[in-house]
């Protein structure tokens, strides 16, 4: 997987006692077009500390352009922002 670290727009649902659950997200490509990717499966969930910030880390799988891809998204608890970290 390659590190891209792009900010994304995420649609997720939250519970009272646990981490958010990603549903789908929108990522902007270099030519300013949007691609919507549905999260087909969350493989792992975890919590990590990156540069002093607590983040939820999700390793997910989706069908992107006809191919099954595994990628990693992160949710920053301090800023409440989502990042497509690796793909």
Commentary on this structure:
A 7-stranded antiparallel β-sheet has the order 3-2-1-7-6-5-4, with no helix packed on it. The protein has 87 residues and is mostly beta strands. It has one domain. β1 and β2 form a beta hairpin. The protein contains no helices and 7 strands. The termini are close together. It is globular, with a radius of gyration of 13 Å.
Keywords:
single chain; 0% helix; mainly beta; globular; seven-stranded antiparallel sheet; 87 residues
What's the helix and strand layout?
Layout: E1 3-13, E2 21-28, E3 34-38, E4 41-50, E5 53-64, E6 67-76, E7 81-86
Antiparallel strand pairs: 1-2, 1-7, 2-3, 4-5, 5-6, 6-7
How many strands in all?
Answer: 7
Distance between the termini: 5 Å
The overall pLDDT average reads 93
Radius of gyration: 13 Å
Helix content: under 10%
Number of spatially distinct domains? 1
Instruction: Please state roughly what percent of the residues sit in beta strands, choosing from under 5%, 5-15%, 15-25%, 25-35%, 35-45% or over 45%.
Output: over 45%
Biggest sheet descriptor: 7 strands, antiparallel
Low-confidence stretches: none
Number of helices: 0
**Main sheet strand line-up:** 3-2-1-7-6-5-4
Structural class determined from secondary elements? mainly beta
Order of helices and strands: EEEEEEE
Morphology call: globular
